[in-house]
Write a structure and sequence with these properties.
Length: 203
């Protein structure tokens, strides 16, 4: 049985807009994907609320992606779905697009060097709803503008490193409830898209 590591932030964890709870395994995309891929694949759910990708988080190591990833790579996953980076756009950090690009490249190379196949997921594009919801203290207009640039950055890195790439913004949008997280319907679509990506490409 092949192992698939789903490594990411709150949208990988399955954060429910407004309530702050977690979608159950029949609703969050990682849980749905797990069911779809049985018995050929084991899906490891490694999402964490408020996890950065490339910048050291104010909330510690668990929320700092580049520090936590080696722990999960030690489990020797065959495939890594990397879905991280939107929290780096928080107004506390202010990375440049080059900071994000270089951080993404470094993280991807560590995955490739571990001999895992890699699927890079572009972070969600934020919308104006994030400025009036529960996360307005973290994100601002600059965060929104930066998020709009991320899909192209991620796509270019994937092309340069010859990795699989999915831009979920082509299929789903963040919920209007908080401008950051996905609805149950979007989680189902995400699982369908990734299931097709994995099975049709024989990853």
């Amino acid at each position: 049985m092949k192992k698939i590591l789903c490594f990411g932030d709150s949208n990988t964890y399955g954060y429910v807009p407004l309530s702050g709870q977690r979608y159950d395994e029949n609703t969050r995309w990682t849980g749905i994907l797990k069911q779809k891929l049985l018995p050929d694949y084991e899906v490891i759910e490694a999402g964490c609320n408020n996890r950065n990708g490339f910048i050291e988080s104010n909330c510690g190591d668990e929320c700092t992606g580049f520090k936590m990833l080696p722990k999960y790579l030690s489990e020797k996953p065959d495939i890594v779905i990397l879905a991280i980076g939107i929290n780096d756009t928080q107004k506390f950090y202010r990375p440049t697009t080059d900071d994000i690009k270089n951080g993404l490249i470094s993280m991807c190379k560590s995955i490739i060097d571990s001999k895992s196949k890699l699927i890079i997921i572009a972070p969600p594009v934020l919308n104006e709803d994030v400025l009036k919801g529960n996360f307005a203290f973290q994100f601002d207009e600059i965060s929104i503008e930066t998020s709009k640039q991320l899909p192209d950055i991620y796509k270019n890195v994937a092309q340069d490193l010859k990795c699989a790439f999915v831009d979920l913004n082509e299929f789903v949008r963040v919920s209007s409830l908080d401008g950051l997280h996905y609805s149950p319907e979007s989680h189902k679509i995400i699982a369908d898209v990734l299931n097709k990506k994995i099975t049709s490409n024989n990853l």
